[in-house]
Amino acid sequence: MTTEPGAVGTRPAHVGVSVAEAPLSSLMLQLVRAHAAIATAMLQQIDLVAPQELVVLFLQEHGRTPQSEIVYFLGRDRSTVTNTLQAMERADLITRTPSQTDKRSMVVSLTSKGRRLCPRIREIWSDLERMAFGGLTAQQRADLAQLFTDIRQGLPPASGPYSASPASDDPEETSR
To answer: Which of 96, 112, 92 is nearest to 104 (CA)?
Structure first.
């Protein structure tokens, strides 16, 4: 009996995208995807999806918060955050009420169900941290944290020059 290529159990798991011209970026993407897949599976155990757990933790730390602050915190499009919050509202994790000072604005609060999830969410993140970095020494973790910080600070802001189409090399086009 022969098995088809790609049939379950016939090949090892694919490590992910690898671009020869960008070996470090490729490895980073592979790491981020693997980390996110594990986090997704762990969060599913408590019926959450990313970034719902971050919203819950943010609200635990900050209390009642204008929805615009959550949009800013997540760094995502307003409509995407609205969809996330609506799903969380249906799951009875949060409530959204009109602001008393600006009726166009919504204020977001945790429900008791949302508050009860906080310890479990923190445990999941702690377990994920141990899985990902537990094999490193304290010094390696400190060095890695510094490298991550240096890399992040070296990147242009998302709203910077690479957020739109690249500039043309033609001086005629750039002066228009």
So the answer is: 96
pLDDT tens-digit map of 63-109: 999 999 999 999 999 999 999 999 999 999 999 999 999 888 999 99
End-to-end CA distance of the chain: 66
Query: Quick count: other Cβ atoms within 10 Å of Cβ 68?
Result: 16
HSE-up (13 A, CA, CB side) for residue 125: 12
Contact criterion met (CB below 8 Å) for 29 and 91: no
* Residue-averaged pLDDT of the chain: 88
CA–CA distance, 30 with 14 (Å, rounded to integer): 10
Residue 86 falls in which region: left (phi positive, over 0), alpha (psi -120 to 50) or beta: alpha
Q: In this structure, which amino acid lies at residue 55?
A: V
